[in-house]
Amino acid sequence: MTIDAVAATAAAPTGMYSSTTTTRTPNQSMDSEVFMSLLVTQLQNQDPSAPMDTNEMIAQTTQLAMMEKLTEMATASGEGFSLQMRTSAAALVGETVTYTDPDGAEVTGLVSSVSFAGPVPTVTVNGEPVALDVISGVTSARAEDTEDAAEATTAA
Q1: β-strand partners of 97
Q2: Can you name the residues that pair with 124 across neighbouring β-strands?
Q3: Out of 27, 66, 77, 122, which could bridge 129 as a Cys pair, Cβ 3.0 to 4.6 Å?
Q4: How many angstroms separate the CA atoms of 94 and 139, rounded?
C-alpha cells in the first residue's frame, strides 16, 4: 500500500499535534509596571539567609518614582508644545504669511483658516493647505493697513 505525500499532509490531524506559531513583539521600553513586577519577583525569590538590602530597595523605589515623574514631565512638555503650535496657528488667521512651496518658489498669501487634524496644524493660504512649520514669515494685515494709510496721507 502506498501513501500519497500530498494527501498525507493535507489530512494531518489538528488539535494537540498541530502547532501554531504566534509572533510576539517585544516591548522596548521599561514602564513602571515592568519595574514593579521585577522588584516583586526579586523579593519573592530572594535568599532568606541573605535578604535584599533595604538601602538597595529604597534606591530602586526612588528610581521608579523618578522615572514616573520624568515620564509625566515629558508628556506635559509635549502637550504644552502642541498647544503652543495650535495657538500660533490660530493667531495667523487674517495675517499675510510667506512660505516656500514644494517647487522651491516663495509664496505669499492671506491665511483664511486653520486645521488641527494632523500632528502639525495646517493653515490655508490662497486655498492651499500649508503646514505651520513651513511658514517662513508673517506680515500683519494691520501693519499693511497702517502702511497704506501712511502712504495715502503722504501722497495727499
Answers
A1: 109, 138
A2: 113, 129
A3: 122
A4: 10
